[in-house]
Amino acid sequence: MKVIVCAGGSGGHIYPALAIIHKIKEKEPKSDILYIGTTDRMEKDLIPSLGIKYEGIPMKGINRKNIFKNIGVFVCYQKAIKKAQNLIKEFQPDIVIGVGGYITAPVIMAAKKQKCKILIHEQNLIPGISNKLIAKYADKICISLPGSKEYFKEEKVVYTGNPRSEEIIHAKKMAKSEIGFQDDKKLVIFVMGSLGSTTMMKKIKEIIPCFSKKDYQVLIVTGNNYYEEYQKMEVPNNVKLVPFLNDFIHLLKSSELIVSRAGASTIAEITAIGIPSILVPSPYVANDHQTPNAKELEESGASILITEDEFNGERVVGAIDNILNDRSLYQKMQKNAKKLGITDSATRIYKEIKKVIKD
Asked: Strand, coil or helix: what is 135?
């Protein structure tokens, strides 16, 4: 099978794309896969480092603040379509798969022009701009959350879940001692997206001293851009800082609680393994799509939603203490999270890929 996968911008798009690639390789090891991403975002380094064939196309996202700058975006978009067409002609894929980010729009548009079979995957409850734009060209649309059905043509939609969920189910559990913690003490992980957050860096720095006398351990994944800033402060012995964690899902399986943004991959991971969470939706993402993600978990009793404005020591540390110290509440949150999880998502998507190619 020859497959082009396109996704870019952030881990929320890239890691589900990788999960799909891994499943294809598992099922059909001789498959030829080409990943198309941008030339200036995290996928340009990550994907080649994994030994996956990669092509970068210059592309910009829509500027919501200055509409006149979108003239340049449109020109870039047209050039991106032409380059994608050339790559598609040369590669001759059986199917083109779009997994989100603004790079997917020109690639899927080019795929349509080349009369390719097309499948797209939507990670969030509310679809992103690219997927809204290209949905009409897709032969099949896989969704992560049931509520996304209303945004697409019903006959094209299939509820598969987020493929990241299957990866964490099969991931080997990582001992807390591997990163210098005690295995017999509870662990809370803070992570505010794959790239980190300026606003949340300041807020988390303010609450770090609150953990000094707690009997649990805290790992803060700062993001590469903010690690140096965190390094300037002293932290309690039970707190550790890391810029990035390649084995994140392995350690997550050993932790008791996560405090995180409400990105799609995070939602998939925590529901797959049933870990209680405190979700802090990013107010800066398109269509505020993380808030509906978080609300779905909160309303199901799997999570506590705290807005960025509400995020302070009293509110956050109080919520952590309440969850970890109330065994009944903790078990209910675990159970409710698992109810929302799909543990074979990547397999479901692989089956849909085969159906689209066959049809």
From this structure: helix
**Which segments of 235-281 does DSSP mark as H helices, in order?**
248-252, 264-273
Give the rounded distance of the alpha carbon of 166 from its chain centre: 13
pLDDT, position 296: 87
Residue 268 to residue 3: CA distance in whole angstroms: 24
332 pLDDT band, cuts 50/70/90, is: very high
Q: List the structure tokens of 27.
A: 């099922």
With a pLDDT cut of 70, the percent of the chain lying above it is 96
Do 48 and 27 contact (CB within 8 A), yes or no?
no
- Assign 246 to helix, strand or coil: coil
CA 100/CA 123 separation, integer angstroms? 8
Q: What average pLDDT does range 272-278 have in this prediction?
A: 96
Reading the block at residue 151, the tokens are 């945004």
What phi and psi, each to the nearest 5 degrees, are found at residue 209? -60, -25
**Backbone φ, ψ for residue 117 (5° rounding):** -75, 140
Partners of 102 in beta bridges? none
Cβ atoms of 208 and 220 closer than 8 Å = yes
Span 135-174, pLDDT tens digits = 999 999 999 888 889 999 999 999 999 998 888 898 899 9
